[in-house]
Amino acid sequence: MVLFYMLPTQLPYLIVNTLGGKPQTVGFVIATAMTFNALTSMQYAKIKARLSYVQIYSATFLLFGLGLYLFSRAGSITELFWATAPTGMAFGLLLVNTNAWFLSQVPPSKRGRASGLLTSSFFLGQFASPLLFQPIVAHFGIQGLFLLVSGVSVLVGLVLFMKSR
Predict the structure, then answer these.
(1) How far is residue 131's CA from residue 6's CA, in Å, rounded to a whole number?
(2) Side-chain half-sphere of 60: how many Cα atoms within 13 Å?
(3) Among 42, 50, 118, 131, which residue carries the largest CB count within 10 Å?
(4) Which domain holds residue 149?
(5) What's the whole-model pTM score?
(6) Is 162 exposed, middle or buried (0-12, 13-18, 19+ CB in 10 A)?
(7) What average pLDDT does the structure give for the chain?
(8) DSSP letter string over 57-123?
(9) How many helices (DSSP H) and strands (DSSP E) are in the chain?
(10) Is residue 1 part of a domain?
(11) Coil, helix or strand for 164?
(12) What pLDDT is recorded for position 122?
């Protein structure tokens, strides 16, 4: 969830401070990513019929890494929109796959509590994301943060891919 909240907490600084965009551009870029999120999450049942939870997580991290890489290299607002597709798709897979996998591991009698814990993790990720990423931004810059997390995401995606084989 720390990664999920990286976009709404860090992307505005990239758009406004680095690329000279306007505040309304922030909303438009994030909304575009969330459109891809919704479209992908609506296809989850079809994806899950073909792939395991681990394979979906692998695809999620690879897509997220690609999107963040594109954010890290963007030199204009227009270029950011190329990053919204893979990033939004990754989030669409991440949220649904996490919910489905997590709740499949919990007995029905404990799913209410488990859902509460999962929801708490979402909010803790929202809280922790800017705290964890700010030192990286201070040292490497905002696009350096996106590049660094892109590399970590691709590495995690590849490890999960190898594990799924």
Answers:
(1) 11
(2) 25
(3) 118
(4) 6-164
(5) 0.92
(6) exposed
(7) 93
(8) HHHHHHHHHHHHHHHHH--SHHHHHHHHHHHHHHHHHHHHHHHHHHHHTS-GGGHHHHHHHHHHHHH
(9) 7, 0
(10) no
(11) helix
(12) 85
- Split into its structural domains, the chain has a count of 1
Element (H, E) at 19: none
- The CATH number linked to 145 is 1.20.1250.20
CA 45 to chain centre: 19
What are the pLDDT digits (tens) for 5-41? 888 889 999 999 999 999 899 999 999 999 999 999 9
Q: If you search the block for the tokens 């907490």, which residue do you land on?
A: 9
- Whether residue 147 lies inside any domain: the answer is yes
Token readout for 97 is: 């796959």
Q: Could you report the per-residue pLDDT of 111-124, keeping only the tens digit for each?
A: 889 989 988 988 89
d(CA 31, CA 24): 11
